[in-house]
Design goal:
It is a single chain. The longest helix has 21 residues. With 682 residues, the chain is of the alpha/beta class. Among the domains are: 124 residues, Arc Repressor Mutant, subunit A (Orthogonal Bundle); 166 residues, Ribonuclease Inhibitor (Leucine-rich repeat, LRR (right-handed beta-alpha superhelix), Alpha-Beta Horseshoe). The chain is extended. The protein contains 14 helices and 27 strands. Strand 9, helix 11 and strand 10 form a beta-alpha-beta unit.
């Protein structure tokens, strides 16, 4: 053993001598094995200086460094971000190349950049990989590439359609648009990558009309987080697929300061046991420059903090809350200094709402079970110009003083309030600027308040489907009233006495007012252009003042079964259209009809007691003439001379007369115009 130790000692010492570190200052190549590969110091310094100059130049000009700045060469190209119009243009350019290839006799083929490792180059200055100029053809007429060529064409088509519609989808969404063709998502993803390398990615997307949150991976709300440049408007649907506040925050909506219109929508018909809407909406807090906000199908009983406190909405002009069925209170210190339009619909349990809307002009309250929000909001407003109240089930009356501070109110609509029985007198009394008043679908409303005569600016008065309404208190007339339609007021017996004083009235429409027996107009309405009366079974005559309506252009009478005559003695110089139909007792046309020389359309149909028609020789402007199904008619004044004068006639329809009237006088249309419709009713 001792001998062995003695023999090992010199070997160990020799080995240690061999492994001794060389002198660092020595020129021995064993110490610097890669020395020959190093660049000289001046060249390294020059390279750093060039990079520093390029970086400084880029920073000073706020210009992104590109391949051209680095003079890498024309053999490489960078995959850059493109906006939607550029993507569309690139796709259209690709298809033009394909068409040119076909026309040149080279067949249907796509030229796609090669993504092989040999065609990639890492540029450290850009910290990215760029592609060299190598491409490959993907011909359709080749067994090995026909499938990829087909998929490429389909992918390009889908992307182009999505760009046109401003729709954002994930790769998975794209795959499901044509599962039979793609078969496997890896195939569509691969082709999509080819396309994106060919024309850039969409991370610079600026316009996105709507985004649908899905349950699958790749369709979550976090997909919005990377779209930093979104602007304009965006609607986000199916927010029930967002789990919690943290996931909602990943959308980073507060950072997207160029979005001006935003819509949040949850799906309907969800289980009430799962309700995290408030937390999700908390995480989706937008930026303070938002102009329009819509919230649909929100199911929590309270709004998140950013909706009830602070001054987040310094620029908000329109706010819509639709179908928040569980919302009970919407109170707090939230300030809406610029809000101009507020829409509340189907918030059945809402008991209170904010009152500070210093600029609010349009208020719509729709489908609510209580009138509390109306009182809370409207009584504090001073700037309101438009108010719409719809589908209020338990609203029995409009509260007093609700509009007393809104001197500029110009539009008031009360619609589908089945329990409404009265309207407080001062509701109209303080609306001196009101121009349009519409009352629709209030079957229990019996009368309107007397304050109507104070509406000196009223231009439009519309009353529809108020079955119990007995009178309309217009006694002094409205000099500014232009339009006055009355529909289905079954208990209304007479029209307002002051109707004749409405000297600006242009349209008067009376329909389904079965108890009206007369219309009191004796001196005429000088501005009346259209008079339509229908389904008034008790009406036996038209007003004598009708002949003084010198501006009347359209006169239509339908289903007035007791009407016997029309008082036109001297003609109506402006009348262009006269229609009388389904008037069972109507027996004769007025002699003054021949003086209506501007008449273009004359239609007399289904009047079984009509026996005679006066001369029509002077009606040379007729373009359409219809006389049929008048069983008692014994004579038709259609002479050859009259026919020859109808140079403008386009449509003629006659027949269905008295059974002993077997033939017509010779009637040969002699004008230059072509009668496109001509028929005889047996």
């Amino acid at each position: 053993m001792a001998d062995n130790k003695k023999r090992q000692t010199p070997t160990t010492v020799a080995d240690k001598k061999k492994r001794r570190r060389p002198d660092p200052n020595s020129d021995d190549d064993t110490y610097h094995p890669f020395k020959s590969l190093l660049k000289p110091d001046p060249l390294i310094l020059q390279t750093l200086d060039n990079l520093r100059s390029a970086t400084a130049s880029s920073s000073s000009s706020s210009k992104t460094i590109t391949l051209a700045d680095l003079a890498v060469g024309s053999t490489c190209r960078e995959v850059s971000d493109l906006d939607l119009p550029s993507v569309q243009s690139e796709i259209e350019l690709q298809m033009l190349k394909v068409i040119k290839s076909i026309l040149d006799g080279n067949g249907f083929a796509f030229e796609v950049p090669s993504r092989a490792a040999a065609n990639q180059l890492y540029v450290p200055e850009l910290d990215r990989i760029v592609l060299k100029d190598k491409t490959s053809l993907r011909p359709y007429a080749n067994v090995s590439t026909v499938r990829k060529a087909t998929v490429t064409a389909r992918i390009l088509q889908l992307i182009h359609q999505l760009c046109l519609k401003n729709i954002h989808v994930t790769k998975r969404d794209l795959f499901y648009t044509d599962v039979k063709l793609f078969q496997d998502q890896t195939q569509s993803d691969s082709v999509l990558d080819d396309v994106s390398f060919g024309m850039g990615r969409l991370s610079n997307l600026r316009s996105l009309s709507y985004f649908i949150v899905g349950k699958e991976k790749g369709r979550g709300i976090e997909e919005l987080g990377g779209l930093k440049h979104l602007k304009g408007k965006i609607s986000i649907y199916h927010l029930e697929h967002v789990r919690d506040i943290e996931e909602a925050k990943k959308a980073k909506l507060a950072e997207k300061t160029n979005i001006r219109k935003l819509k949040f929508e949850w799906g309907e018909g969800r289980s009430s046991a799962i309700n995290n809407d408030r937390d999700v909406l908390e995480g989706l807090a937008p930026h303070s420059e938002l102009g329009i906000l819509k919230i649909c199908n929100f199911s929590s009983d309270q709004f998140p903090s950013w909706m009830i406190s602070g001054n987040l909405f310094s620029s908000l002009k329109k706010l819509s809350i639709d179908n928040a069925k569980n919302l009970i209170e919407w109170t707090g210190a939230a300030i809406f200094p610029r809000l101009e339009e507020l829409f509340l619909r189907n918030c059945n349990q809402l008991k209170s709402a904010p009152t500070h809307f210093p600029c609010l002009q349009k208020l719509t309250i729709d489908s609510m079970d209580s009138g509390m929000p109306i009182a809370n909001i409207s009584t504090q407003l001073t700037t309101l110009t438009h108010l719409t109240i719809k589908e209020m089930e338990e609203l029995a009356s409009l509260p007093e003083g609700m509009l007393k501070k809104n001197k500029n109110l110009s539009y008031l609509e009360i619609r589908s309030c089945p329990d409404l029985t009265c309207i407080a007198a001062d509701v109209f009394g303080c609306c001196a600027s009101l121009e349009s008043l519409s009352i629709y679908g209030c079957p229990n409303l019996r009368t309107l308040p007397d304050g109507l005569h104070t509406l000196l600016s009223l231009k439009e008065l519309i009353i529809r489907y108020c079955d119990s309404l007995e009178c309309i208190p217009v006694t002094q007339g409205h000099a500014s009233l232009c339009k006055f339609p009355i529909f289905k007021c079954l208990e209304l017996c007479i029209l307002p006495e002051g109707l004749e004083c409405c000297t600006s009235l242009r349209r008067l429409i009376i329909d389904k007012c079965s108890k009206i027996t007369s219309i009191s107009i004796t001196h005429g309405l000088p501005s009346l252009c259209e008079l339509q009366i229908s389904n008034c079974d008790e009406l036996s005559s038209l007003p004598s003042g009708l002949q003084h309506c010198t501006s009347l252009e359209h006169l239509s009478i339908f289903f007035c079964r007791n009407l016997e005559a029309i008082p036109i003695t001297h003609g109506l110089p402006s009348l262009r259209q006269l229609e009388i139909s389904y008037c069972d007792e109507f027996s004769s046309l007025p002699n003054g009809l021949q003086h209506c020389t501007s008449l273009e359309h004359l239609s007399i149909t289904y009047c079984p007691n009509l026996e005679a028609i006066p001369s029509l020789d002077s009606l040379t402007q007729l373009r359409q003439l219809e006389i049929y199904n008048c069983d008692g008619l014994k004579g038709v004044p259609l002479t050859s001379a009259f026919a020859a004068s109808l140079t403008l006639l386009k449509e003629l329809k006659i027949g269905g007369f008295w059974k002993e009237l077997n033939s017509f006088p010779a009637f040969q249309h002699g004008g230059s115009s072509k009668v496109v419709g001509k028929s005889c009713i047996p």
